[in-house]
Amino acid sequence: MATRLGLPNLGLGLGLRSQHFEHILKKNPAVDWFEVISENFMDSHGRPRHILHQIAERYPVVMHGVSLSIGSTDPLNLDYLKSLKQLAAEVQPVWISDHLCWTGVLTTNSHDLLPLPLNDESLKHVCNRINQVQDYLERPLIVENPSTYAAFNNSTLPEWEFLRIMTEETGCGLLLDVNNVYVSSFNNDFDPVEYIKGIPHDKIVQMHLAGHQNCGNYIIDTHDREVNSQVWKLFQLAYQLANEASVLLEWDGNIPSFDIYHSELLKSKQYMDETFIGVDNEVRFMDKEQVSNPLNLFEMNKFI
Ligand SMILES: [Fe+2]
């Protein structure tokens, strides 16, 4: 039985994007909840924050951060945490999330979600910092698995095992980004199904879905298109295992009209009830120009 830290299932949600402010305020669309990027509102006391207050009066809202830098060796940024807590006091989010990553060091912010080596030392470091953050915010932190494009030689734990111990040690929750699992598995050559089966399902508070770009021998987590069919299949499995987790579709580039964005989210319903039948690996390291006959194609597929 999923406990999800006592947090509610909010249903199907969308990321709040400024392009859709007017539509939402005028039309009150039938979306279950919205996720906001915390940093887009923390330092703004003008129109965006005023609009956020109006939306938070009508819909459940969750705050999703990109700059906590929980894995960095810099001290935690207390000014950032103060501003985050202030926004939370105003908006009353159902929960607050950020990523298992580091975004900078020596006070420089790379504005990127950078991967960590996954070993006992980094696990202890991250757990200490999550505990500090949770003490300060006076609520559990919900931590998201990042998309990764590289792995470290000194990693000794698979990411799903790292996440499991992290939740046990700190009591934090998980935001399972199914697209990120798929992207990372393709780029770093692990089995996404093993990952989904290996994480602690009762700690999954929320899931993310998003589109990505397959560049042939690597995948970029672009959030600029519809969800890939293999990610939908993986979502089927994840949703079955993480019973009653809230679901959110991210879309950050080439943002479509609100109605198109919403209709892509609603596709998730058809996958929630279907039985998982497996994920096909996308073709990797294949340049069609270099494949001269069907035999080569067959031979390559055997090894993918
Ligand atoms: Fe995500």
Write up this protein.
The protein has 304 residues and is α/β, with parallel strands linked by helices. It has a single domain, classed as Divalent-metal-dependent TIM barrel enzymes (TIM Barrel). Helix content is 40%, strand content 17%. It contains twelve helices and twelve strands. The strands form three sheets. It has an eight-stranded parallel beta barrel, surrounded by four helices. A two-stranded antiparallel sheet has the order 5-6. Strand 5 and strand 6 (108-114) form a beta hairpin. Helix 5 (120-137) packs across helix 6 (159-170) and helix 8 (192-198) runs parallel beside helix 9. The longest helix has 18 residues, at 120-137. The protein is globular, with a radius of gyration of 19 Å. The site of fe (ii) ion has 5 residues, from loops.
Low-confidence regions: 285-304
Sketch the major β-sheet. Answer: 8 strands, parallel, barrel
List the bound ligands. Answer: fe (ii) ion
Q: How much strand content do the residues show?
A: 15-25%
Structural class: alpha/beta
CATH topology name, in short, is TIM Barrel
CATH homolog superfamily: Divalent-metal-dependent TIM barrel enzymes
User: Globular, elongated, flat, extended or rod-shaped: what is the shape?
Assistant: globular
Radius of gyration: 19 Å
Provide the CATH architecture.
Alpha-Beta Barrel
In the CATH scheme, the class would be Alpha Beta
Counting structural domains, the number is 1
Q: Order of strands side by side in the largest beta sheet?
A: 1-2-3-4-7-8-9-12
Q: How helical, in percent, are the residues? A: 25-40%
Number of strands: 12
Q: What is the N-to-C succession of helices and strands?
A: EHEHHEHEEEHEHEHHEEEHEHHH
Distance between the termini: 36 Å
- Figure out the total of helices: 12
Average pLDDT works out at 90
